[in-house]
Amino acid sequence: MSLKRVSHSEEDMQIKEDERNAFFMDVARLEREIAKNLASIRKQEGLTQSNIADKTGLTQQMVSRLEKLGNSPTLESFLKYVVALDLKIKFEKIN
C-alpha cells in the first residue's frame, strides 16, 4: 500500500471544503424544515394555498413554490406567508 504525501495547504483546503459542504447541508435541512412546517401549519389551520394567496396578494403558484424545496422566494414573499398564518419568527442561537 502506497501512501500519498499531502501538504498542509491541501489538507487545509480539504477541511475548508468539508466545512463549506456542511454549511450547505445545514442550509438545505433548514429550508426543508421551514417548507414542511409552513405547509403543515397552513393545513392545520384549514387553509388552502389559494386562501394564503388571497391574504397575501401572491399567486397560488407562488405559495406552492414557497412550500417546495429548491425555490428561492423573496424575503418579502416569505414574510407575507408567515404573516398570513399569524406566525412569529424567533431567532435562536444554536451554539
TrEMBL record:
The lineage of its organism: Bacteria, Bacillati, Bacillota, Clostridia, Eubacteriales. Residues 38-94 form the HTH cro/C1-type domain. This is Helix-turn-helix transcriptional regulator. InterPro entries: Cro/C1-type_HTH. It comes from the Bacteria. PROSITE patterns: HTH_CROC1 (PS50943).
